[in-house]
Specification:
The complex is a heterodimer. Chain A is α/β, with parallel strands linked by helices. The longest helix of chain A has 21 residues. Chain B folds into 2 domains: about 170 residues, 3-Layer(aba) Sandwich (Rossmann fold), CATH 3.40.50; about 130 residues, N-(1-d-carboxylethyl)-l-norvaline Dehydrogenase, domain 2. Chain B contains 11 helices and 12 strands. Chain B has an 8-stranded mixed β-sheet, sandwiched between helices. In chain B, a hairpin with a 3-residue loop joins β3 and β4. In chain B, α6 runs antiparallel to α7 and α6 packs parallel to α9. In chain B, about 50% of the residues are buried. Classes of the chains: A alpha/beta, B alpha/beta. At the A-B interface, α6, α8, α11 and α12 of A face α6, α7 and α11 of B.
């Protein structure tokens, strides 16, 4: 039985899923993306991954959502602030399918659930960057976790079917009943480190080398853990370990967090879905998050400063 | 008082020197030879809220200047120790006045000589266009109070002199309530501006959504107020009201710490937020948000060092 998968938002992370899945005979892959040059290059030459893996995936890419066939699965990989328009445009293709998110932050599943019926909560650790249209540098390999979104779940058998296809395609993926643990581990990691790089201009390794700043990261981690605990979420590992692991020279010492890259390019950041997401959950649950509140306000201030110039 | 020396001719020093030259014999003590020469040859041009040219003496060594009755140390806080050291051994009868941000400037000066000392904080601001041209932007007051060996009458005499020169000044029997108001205001507004890149504009008073910047500004001010209360200092003005008022002026002020960050210069964080955090530590008052701001600014400095 073949499956049809559409990757919604074929940036770096979306491309990793799309190209790897496209190597499977029994999976038909589509990609929906608004970057015309990237879409044209994919249709002409295939989608090429270099670095951590050498892959050329043959797939159909389009900027026009009306061209999409009925799909069994969607994998949404846009930046978090583009989720709403992306799923609004493509929802018709998933009328009988399930839609997973592999985006950063929290709150994406809720947005998807407003447009499609069956939603899969997801978290992914692989990373890369688009180096030219149709070509993606695969920087970091890593695991993905999928699970049914509690409020509007996809059937678990479907979650397993998508996870199995991803794993077979070269993206190791687990299907679990409760996917909140890995998601909160990642969001806490990102919210504790990305904005510190973005506000100071320092790479991940240099953030960790400054003891006062590293303590601030721990303060952010502790607040995030308290918000997760109030929802009875069990983290699958300690975000602190991930912070220290990533600071190693051979891992991501010199890596500029995506939020720092956004700030340098004056692009809107994902802070609303990272620190903002933790702060909002904290507010609803009555868990104080003063450090996340401050960082959130500062990064929003940085974004506001661009609009004045 | 007829002879005044202004040490340091940045924005604040230039504004003092030019205005006071209209009512007193003014000299400027500066660091660079070419700066002293330019001031001697061209004088000082003031534009903006006032428009005039002033003649003054200038030199790079105190022994080349006439003995003043009043010395205004108008350098940056970071340079205060060095500038006070340069006048050490000179002008024993003069009153020395500090106008630096933060608190404790009078203690720094006192280590270098037995002068009588006045403390001041200034809220005026301007833009320096060249060594000899300064634009007068905000005409807010300078507040003056007695410190070592001076009386409220000394403070009033200097305030009167400054007022007669066209600048605004006010004397206080105890400066600390005013000084602390400004310290809390600066520790908040300067750091938020430096980290966001925003001038002091209406964002600083906006509390409309959970992520609005005004919430952070208010929380920082509240931490500062708790420190002042523990120190037994009643505030002269509510820093939150100072903040709201300042953002309603129309033209947004560029705090000096934002200018420092944009120019990749070392900031005054140690003397402003650092001073507040040290006082808080001494008094046992928690100031986690000010510590966060201090850490972020220091890390930002490290990014270009």
């Amino acid at each position: 039985m073949g499956v049809t998968v559409c990757v919604v938002g074929c940036g770096a992370v979306g491309s990793l899923f799309a190209a790897n899945l496209a190597t499977l005979e029994d999976v038909e892959v589509w990609a929906y993306d608004l970057a015309q040059e990237h879409v044209d290059a994919i249709n002409r030459d295939g989608l090429r991954l270099t670095g951590a893996g050498e892959v050329v995936g043959r797939l159909r890419a389009t900027t026009d959502a009306a061209e999409l066939p009925a799909c069994d699965f969607g994998i949404v990989a846009t930046k978090a602030m583009h989720t709403e328009p992306a799923i609004r445009a493509t929802a018709h293709a998933f009328a009988n399918g399930c839609v997973a998110t592999v985006q950063n932050g929290i709150g994406n599943e809720e947005v998807l659930a407003a447009h499609v019926e069956r939603v899969i909560r997801g978290t992914t650790f692989p990373a890369g960057k688009i180096t030219s249209p149709g070509v993606v540098q695969w920087d970091v390999k890593g695991d993905t976790t999928f699970g049914p979104f509690e409020e509007q779940p996809a059937p678990f058998a479907e979650v397993e079917r998508l996870a199995e296809a991803c794993t077979r395609g070269g993206m190791p993926t687990k299907a679990v009943e409760d996917a909140r643990g890995p998601q909160w581990r990642k969001v806490i990691f990102n919210a504790a480190t990305n904005p510190l790089g973005a506000l100071t201009g320092l790479t991940h390794g240099r953030v960790c080398e400054q003891p006062p700043l590293r303590r601030l990261a721990s303060q952010l981690v502790d607040e995030g853990k308290a918000v997760a605990a109030a929802q009875r979420i069990e983290l699958d590992a300690d975000p602190e370990e991930l912070i220290d692991y990533a600071a190693r020279p051979e891992v991501a010492y010199g890596h500029k967090a995506s939020m720092l890259q956004d700030v340098e390019a004056r692009r809107q950041t994902e802070v609303d879905y990272l620190n903002g997401g933790i702060a909002e959950f904290g507010r609803k649950l009555g868990v104080p998050t003063p450090a996340h509140d401050s960082i959130w306000a500062l990064v929003k201030g940085v974004e506001a400063a661009w609009q004045q110039q | 008082m007829t002879r005044v020396c202004v040490a340091g001719a940045g924005v604040i020093g230039s504004l003092f020197a030019a205005h006071l030259a209209r009512v007193a014999e003014v000299s400027a003590l500066v660091r660079r030879d070419e700066h002293a020469r330019a001031l001697r040859d061209e004088g000082l041009q003031v534009s903006g809220r006032a428009d005039f040219a002033a003649q003054l003496q200038a030199a790079t060594a105190p022994e080349e200047l006439p003995e003043p009755e009043l010395v205004i140390l108008a350098c940056k806080t970071l340079d205060l120790d060095a500038v006070a050291g340069r006048i050490a051994g000179h002008w024993p009868d003069a009153i020395v006045m500090t106008v630096q941000n933060g608190i404790g400037a009078d203690d720094v000066v006192a280590r270098h000589g037995d002068w009588r000392i006045l403390s001041a904080v200034t809220f005026m601001s301007g833009t320096r266009h060249s060594d000899t041209h300064v634009q007068y932007v905000l005409d807010t007051a300078t507040w003056i109070g007695p410190a070592r060996g001076t009386t409220p009458d000394d403070a009033r005499a200097v305030a009167d002199l400054i007022s007669s020169s066209g600048l605004k000044a006010e004397a206080f029997d105890d400066l600390r309530p005013a000084q602390w108001s400004k310290l809390i205001f600066n520790a908040t507004v300067n750091t938020v501006a430096a980290l966001t890149g925003l001038p002091h504009d209406p964002h600083f008073a906006d509390v409309s959504t959970p992520s609005s910047l005004g919430n952070l500004v208010r929380d920082l001010i509240d931490e500062g107020k708790a420190v002042a209360q523990a120190a037994g200092v009643p505030l002269r003005e509510d820093p939150w009201e100072m903040n709201v008022l300042a953002t309603q002026r129309g033209s947004a002020h560029y705090p000096s710490m934002l200018e420092d960050v944009e120019a990749h210069r070392r900031t005054e964080i140690d003397m402003i937020t650092g001073a507040l955090v040290r006082e808080a530590g001494r008094l046992g008052v928690p100031v986690p948000l000010h510590k966060t701001m201090e850490r972020l600014i220091k890390a930002k400095e490290a990014s270009w060092e």
